[in-house]
Model the fold of this input.
Amino acid sequence: MEATTLQRIVLGVTGGVAAYKAAELARLLVKRGIDVQTVMTEAATRFVAPATFQALTGRPVFTDLWDERIDNGMAHIDLTRDADAVLVAPASADFLAKLAQGAASDLLSTLCLARSCALLAAPAMNLQMWEQPASRRNVAQLKADGVVLLGPAAGEQACGEVGPGRMLEPEELVEALEAYFQPKRLRGLRVLVTAGPTFEAIDAVRGITNLSSGKMGYAVARAALEAGAEVTLVSGPTALAPPREARLISVVSAQQMLEAVEAEADRADIFISVAAVADYYVLNPSEQKIKKDAHILTLELAPNPDILANIGSRERPPFCVGFAAESENVEEYAELKRRRKHLPLIVANAVQEAVGADEVALLLLDDAGRHELARADKLSQARRLIAHIARLYNARHQ
Done:
């Protein structure tokens, strides 16, 4: 699927406690510049008033198949004709059953049946309802029909029970919707990403680390998922939530990261080494906290293994991409690193501008030369990087 600019969606809201989350979802979509047309079932209006969505979206809300505000009486057709997608959130068990059977008993179910655009649904129901054989059959049928199901998540429910059936959070739904419209350039490929800093112990509480936040690596993992890849994320200590669909392997030290990457490398088609790995580790860390005294403390350091070099020197390595964060002579030092490690691509940036920041300028260096990516947020940069990687990878494997 090639890129589609997401400009307008129909937001369908069905009856359920999770309907209150749909209001926040509408707000987030509008904040991103997306035109949101809300259509509610009668049951949904028992949970959230239509006026709420009208205020948030700036558009009238439709609930009635016979609404006279549509001049030709064809609301079920007209409302989706210029939409990029219909997103039903929450999608109740009853509504999923209607979709699976092709029922058209109200405005929302009718426009879903009459639509000519993509249909996505975010299930939300009690865990027993979700696990019933009838629900499982409906879900299987919807997937076979090409309906994209987002979630559900597992967790505490309004009824007090804990398990699968919760609607995804609004932020997660926005991410999933954006991901759906990204080109699937890496479909069927396995991508291995490292992210964050490493931590090399000095004693029981202290260590050597760096200021890496992990934001760039996590953005690259998300962009690879959006591009259709199966992603394994090997992460050092960060405060970030990993992309929901990524397989996460948490590590602390450079040696642990190396072991994790080596265990996964044979399965990977592409390896993107974003992590800021500590160059040195302490030879003899103390198992106990070292007490402060008036004496000078001397640490004996030894070089950590070069993870990227180790993977790149394999007999049949994956397509390897490196990162170079430099404080001076950025392009020169990055290109030397690329040639020394025989990399098809390296991503360079000035460390002063990148560490912990939400925006960054990147320089891509490959066999064809230099490619500048002007300063932008890290997810946008990650998407551009993934597009560049896909072009290089496909050129090698044609």
